[in-house]
Amino acid sequence: YQRRVHGEMERSLWDAMHVARNIHVDPRIVLGGGAIEMAVSSALMERSKSILGVTQWVYQIVAMALEVIPRTLASNCGGNVIKLVTELRALHAKSADNAHWGIDGRLGKITDIRELGVIEPLAVKLQTLKTAVESGCVLLRIDDVVSGISGKKESRGGVQEEQPHPEE
């Protein structure tokens, strides 16, 4: 038990030192609490409405991937995840001026993150955005593969050809 606690303390200290180093290297900060992720998600969803075809999916999938952060915050603090994320999404969709609203991780409610003073390094947020885009691309590739397999089955009339057994 003591080894696990020691290991967790060591990892926490290591993470804290790297955050301090990252802030020293690039001191730019942004709001935390899922506010930035939800603001970008809302903007991407709005933009997707003006795009047709598969490109629209990219915007929507990345927007959904970004909502994982506020959803996780709501879940971790014991809040009603569906209610909180839906309310936060609606708040951000009303106006781009609402980009400072996020999830209070202690109380499990929507709050003005500026008042809480929750900030994060910009470098962390940029990595989050990159990961969301990469996740969206992976999902689209999987969809292409599944669509390709379905298309091949349909082109054969939905019936798979029997393969000869090697023993024959």
Task: Describe this protein's structure.
With 168 residues, the chain is mostly helical. 67% of the residues lie in helices and 8% in strands. It is built from seven helices and four strands; from the N terminus they run αβααααββαβα. The strands form two sheets. The chain has a two-stranded antiparallel ribbon. A two-stranded antiparallel ribbon has the order 2-3. A hairpin with a 4-residue loop joins strand 2 (101-104) and strand 3 (109-112). Helix 2 (35-48) packs antiparallel against helix 3 (54-66), helix 3 (54-66) packs across helix 7 and helix 4 (68-76) crosses helix 5 (81-94). The longest helix is centred in the last third of the chain and has 34 residues, at 122-155. The chain is globular. The chain starts with a helix and ends in a 13-residue tail after the last helix. Residues 158-168 have low confidence and may be disordered.
Provide the structure class.
mainly alpha
Helix content, binned percent: 55-70%
- Count of extended strands: 4
**Which range does the strand content fall in?**
5-15%
Strand order in the sheet with the most strands: 1-4
State the end-to-end distance. Answer: 60 Å
Provide tags for this entry.
single chain, 168 residues, mainly alpha, two-stranded antiparallel sheet, two-stranded antiparallel ribbon
